[in-house]
Amino acid sequence: MPVVGWVSDGELVPFAEAERVAERFGDWHGWTLFALQAMREQVARVDGLWVSPSQALECPRLRILKPVVPYYVNPDYTWAALVGSAVHARILVGEGVELELSAELDVGEHVIPVKGRCDYYRDGVIYDVKVTSRLVQEVKLEHVFQVNVYKWLLEENGYAVDAARIWYVSPYQRGVKRRVVEVELFPHEEVEDWLRDVAAPLVRFRETGELPPCRCENTSFFYPHPCHVEGVERLAQEHHSAGLR
Fold first, then answer.
1. Does residue 87 lie within any of the structural domains?
2. Is residue 6 part of a domain?
3. Helices (H), ranges, the chain
4. pTM of the predicted protein model
5. pLDDT of residue 180
6. Number of compact structural domains in the chain
């Protein structure tokens, strides 16, 4: 079972209950009904055991357990993700192309799908848009990795990539801060090796049901945190036996 509700000020509330309160009284903890519905849709998606640029560096244990363990999520965290999605939807138009991409990656005897949506591609140049709470001073390593996975996906699908840039935008500060950063591109084979390393824990789970160790950097967004629920190894084994993929 995936995410089931909101945690706010220590209160655990199922989605439907929060929406009933918002519909009757106008809001729930300051969130309107339509905002709650949009945020529920934002967090309801459950990804399978494949690799995507945006989640390639997510804790693999968390990735496996999200569809398994009931948990609640902080609406503030979800709102930030929703704003980022809205910005993407409105500004990524014009002569560039937003591309849905997929390719297959051989990892030992297994084939792992790699899927992603490239924000903006035109004339051999990738643009990746990052909406942030404050403007970054240095490009994050995980963002460099993500952009290089987009490069790998584009090349696997027959597109040439000559350059890549990240556009950091912070609409939360007065005056709207923004910055464009050139991203170092790595050889196709090197990125493919990275992807195999990322996929390895997912492959082991497919084979054996073994959960990888937790490497979450922030555990405050979820309650209870899926990686640390008592008895989670048994739940994971049950889902593995039932064919979780």
1. yes
2. no
3. 15-25, 33-44, 60-65, 75-91, 141-156, 188-208, 232-241
4. 0.86
5. 92
6. 1
Q: Looking at the domain assignment, is residue 38 inside a domain? A: no
In 3D, which of 36, 44, 34, 46 has the Cα closest to residue 13? 36
89 versus 146: which is more confidently predicted? 146
Residue 46, burial from CB neighbour count under 10 angstroms (0-12, 13-18, 19+): exposed
Report how far residue 3's alpha carbon sits from residue 47's, in angstroms, rounded to the nearest whole number: 12
Q: Give the amino acid at 163.
A: A
On the question of pLDDT at 96 being above 60, the answer is no
CATH of the domain at 56: 3.90.320.10
- Neighbouring C-alpha atoms within 13 Å toward the C-beta of 143: 20
Query: Among candidates 152, 167, 142, 166, which has minimal Cα distance to 58?
Result: 142
Kindly state the tokens that stand for 62: 């968390």
3-state SS, residue 212: coil
In this prediction, residue 183 has a pLDDT band, given cuts at 50, 70 and 90, of very high
Interstrand relation of 163-170 and 177-182 (parallel, antiparallel or unpaired) = antiparallel
12 occurs within a structural domain:
no
For residue 70, the enclosing domain spans 46-241
In angstroms, the Cα distances linking 19 to 10, 23, 70 are 18, 6, 19
